[in-house]
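Form 7-S
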Amino acid sequence: MKENKIMAKRRAVLCGFDLLILAVSYSVILLCFMNSSVILNGKFELQICISRFFFLAICIIGFRICFKIYNHIWRYAGISIYLRLIISDFIAGLEILFIGQLIPYLDLGFRMNLCVVSLNCLISLSARMFYQSQYARHNAAQHTSAEQSHKINIAIVGAGNIGATLAQELIRNPQSHYKPLCFIDLDKDKIGQKLNGLPVYAEDEHIVQWIQEMPIHEVVIALPDLDGDNRKRLYDLYSQTGCKVKLYDYPFGERKEQGIRNFIRDIKIEDLLSRESIQLDNSSSENYYKGKVILVTGGGGSIGSELCRQIAKMQPKKLIIFDIYENNAYDVQQELLLKYASSLKLKVIIGSIRDIDRLEQVFSTERPQVVIHAAAHKHVPLMEQNSVEAIKNNVFGTYNTVNMAEKYKVEKFVLISTDKAVNPTNIMGASKRLCEMIIQSRYDSKTQFVAVRFGNVLGSNGSVIPLFEKEIAQGGPVTITDKRIIRYFMTIPEAAQLVLQAGAMAKKGELFVLDMGKPVHIYDLAKNMIRLSGLIPGQDIQIVEIGLRPGEKLYEELLIKSEEMVKTENDRIFIERDKPLTRAQVEEKLCILKQAIQDASNEVVKEAFQKVVPTFQNPDIVNAAAEHQIDSKTKESLPVSVETQKWA
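Output:
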């Protein structure tokens, strides 16, 4: 009821407004036609004028009411409403002419009628458009003012072409959430100048304090071709300001059309590693895997699932996921089916690599052409306590799968290994080293066997990244085993691409190793993850040392000293060739392990590994030597391989 009264009042006001416009239009035309005999006709001139005005008002306003012109809110009117008003007045003009012919007393004449109706329509339209434009301008001004107050003030690091382009886009785009206040640069020629109307300040020893005193919320790094070391240096510097530090990924080609502002992103932990992302030429991989039947063991795990994602893009004839854990396998299956639907022939098989009969059934039925072996136990402390299971799964599970691949004439078999296999100090690493020996001993096979060795994978199940994230989310403390511990890292997609590339370029018995750059201090990794969460290490979140776990090294290695490095087509990938063992020698080692697991004792298994893996080392001796190196060298130096030491 209240709304109806408001609408009725609004219509009455609009009608009154239109009557006023009509009166003005009629008066102007009367003055223009003052000498016309049509208007000046004896003593009844004023009465005739008034009568004709009301006649005009009834016709024009009446038709506007019929056309529901007053039912609309004119501040939001569109072209269709304006056209309706013009049509309404046009019909009213025709009616005025028609009635004027019937009643001469009300006849204005064609010319005067045309002028009055046209002028009235023009003024009505102009008044409405003016009102609409003023309302829009006022509303936009208020909206802009409100948005400006909610925009994020940023400082742009880098006053080059990319930084200037970013600032220009943010300033011009009203939908941008960012408001650039200044540039920061090292170029002395730019310092003190203005770029896009913004001052350029020096990146000196005072910059942190200066940013803290300014109303700056975020620092955006807009520098091209930043390597890992410089990216980390800039993050370490500007994170001291308390501002959130972000990266600007300059868009090229088609990406540029998506909007520059969309490429300001949060810094991820992989951005702070002292290594560059590996750029692999996937064309050879795609050509090799296209149209082939591919089996991925452990396809539901962190590495295995990413391998499946990468393979699915390459149009295989069939992709088979083999995993013992049905939940993970199901998740990957649903993800791939959702993305590729019927274009991908996908099969999920639940089973264990320890089950020879199940493997026989899978290989005989599916006839895979390529096998990527990712199934393994990889948790170091757990395998120290469950060494028998490590041997059964990692060693004999791999042995079973290798035998099946050879029996059913698989083209290529790719083993995923680890840097923990180099001079191993734990059961897991020793088991993977023995897996490498099994692969290398098949150099005379018709099946091409290859192993790929790399370091820790960011974000994989059981790695430090998910652990740190969980501890930070719980408010801390973040636990590390030792402040001095260092590790090699790579991303899951990089690991998967390397494995696939190795499979495509492999020959026989080769061991591929990735140049992973500099290792990372886990303590620094923990601090950076806390900062990336918007918290302060040691203040908001504490970092606590809990001591090295059984079998854990202070550092990891990627190379065994007796191995020979050979370059490949990619300057970041190498082949290590050590003199391989014969099949008989490997079988002899496996017999020793078979006898050891009968006892089901961790100590017996460890003694057996000392016999079958010559590089298996005592972690206490290795870490003591590493501590001596750390004490004698700076923390920035790379770890030096420790000579193989026998157990005390």
